[in-house]
């Protein structure tokens, strides 16, 4: 089923005629019982199931938003959309975001995030049958999505005068279903199910091998920071953690906390499942550490064999439980380091600043649990040439065909979580 949604947008530079398709604890290795169970039940649908899904013309109730990365466009998701529509069926409304195409990705993560939030809220208003929302974002789109969900987040305690009615009903041992539903946190007024990123620079791009096309050469990595704003605009400063005044914490650090700008961690916690796909190697733009939200000491040599024949190049799945830790901080020492990074990016103070902030961001983001999927294209036919950064979404089937197994894993992950939601609802 296909429907055209005309989405208005305050940014006149965006062309938004949109075609939408329905459709502390260490990580545990995939070998543990929890992840074995997760993998064993991610089965491909039978031909009969696929036929029944395609024949189901009921109204969609699950909004799935696809968010592209830097200097990209909605059409980059075409292959993924076709596979997801086939796997998930007509209960999903699958929409590739169109408000941050090409140069609009360079104006800042916060500005792009607000545009994305506005786009999603308009879709939610136009399709009243929607009840749930999931987001899949690639590369820089993962940061846009993290900002956007915070702008759309409604905390569970936001009941105003209805809270008194609910408390009175609870004292009498009664429950009002409408109030109970509203008590749960929402994203754009919808139940939040999946938040998934693929090769997204959650910790920025400054640091050892965080920007792989520099080959880990210290001199090149030091030169990248001052050049970035001229190449990728305001977004570049934010990715290198040098945006704003020296006395103010950079945007990515704020986004790893609940702060006056937004409840960034609470918004992520609203989702039932959070998954990061990270390329172990051959990703020329985003490093393994930043895309998997890990410290350098937490990186270990991954298995070389795929976990399953259906998921070629997916080599490891692990689960990182939430860690109870203090919110990230920005002390005077950090401010001095930021000032040094803004003036002299190659100084020792600047290097120490980035190390400090990376640790703070990891501590902030580990306050919620994550399932981490490691992808390695070492066995690809031409691992250097097919550009694994874009292979995860098979941006172009001619060059990124090696990523089809990753897309299959993504589709099954979404399908399994959908099954879990229905099981929980029936209990």
From TrEMBL:
It comes from the Eukaryota. InterPro entries: AB_hydrolase_fold, DUF676_lipase-like, Lipase-like. Residues 58-290 form the DUF676 domain. Coiled coil: none annotated. Pfam families: DUF676. This is DUF676 domain-containing protein. It comes from Ceratodon purpureus (Fire moss). The lineage of its organism: Eukaryota, Viridiplantae, Streptophyta, Embryophyta, Bryophyta.
